[in-house]
Amino acid sequence: MKITDLTMLLEEGMQTFAAHWHPFFESTQLGRHGIENRETRKIVLGTHTGTHIDAPRHFIADGETIENIPLAQLNGPARVIDFSNLADKHEITRDELILALGSQCPVRLVARFDWDLKLNTNEYYTDHAFFSEDACQWLVDNGCKLIALDTPQPDSPLNGRGAEKDAPNHKILLGAGVVIVEYLINIRSIESEEFTLIVAPLKIKGGDGAPVRCFAIE
User: How many beta carbons lie within 10 A of that of residue 75, not counting itself?
Assistant: First the structure.
């Protein structure tokens, strides 16, 4: 059995989207050996810090929150598709997605771009490939329940807040109950096309998302 950790390390100074609604990670030691004779820490992080899951509530006003998403939806057989050879800012069309999958849509789809190699660069947020709206709708229509990727989002980097279209793919997927796992790392270390995916989010009451420990079992 091989276990591949797909989770970013939470540490001060880690790359975080530059917006006031995404706090930077902080870790402050409170308990100290030799003084309180135990070590404890206070941590500050957002619901979308590092490797994390988007619950429908993230973009859907009355959408489901993280503590109510069934673990059976998050964990189980998954399939990885390799998009690592795509050009920067490439839009994956519906037909390209169907060709990559052979028309068989998995319940849990892991999309590899090797984009974690761009971490700590400006291009990480501005140049990643993304899915078309038609491709996302095809996933919804064909029974996908989870999409995980090593980019910061499934949307175009141009479709952010204030754009003509604000995160349309998030709204298509989350609006249909398809959860999104973002900021994965090490997908290239998975050796099998099909494997068991484990996504374990923090159980936050009313959470629009949560940091996760995510790994692949082969």
Answer: 17
- Choose among 51, 54, 6, 65: nearest CA to 206: 65
- Does any domain span residue 69? yes
Q: Would you please indicate which residues are annotated as catalytic (active-site) residues?
A: 58
Asked if residue 11 lies in contact with residue 25, where contact means CB atoms within 8 angstroms, the answer is yes
Q: Tens digits of per-residue pLDDT, 130-156?
A: 999 999 999 999 999 999 999 999 999
What is the chain's alpha carbon radius of gyration, rounded to the nearest angstrom?
17
Q: Is 52 helix (H, G, I), strand (E, B) or coil?
A: strand
Tell me the CATH number at 190.
Answer: 3.50.30.50
pLDDT of res. 161: 57
Q: What is the pLDDT of residues 7-20, one digit of tens each?
A: 999 999 999 998 89
In a domain, 77, yes or no: yes
Tell me: the pLDDT tens digits for 19-32? 899 999 999 999 99
Residue ranges making up the domain that contains 54: 3-7+47-217
Using CA atoms, how far residue 51 sits from 63, 129, 183, in Å, is 21, 18, 5
Q: Quick check: helix, strand or coil at residue 194?
A: strand
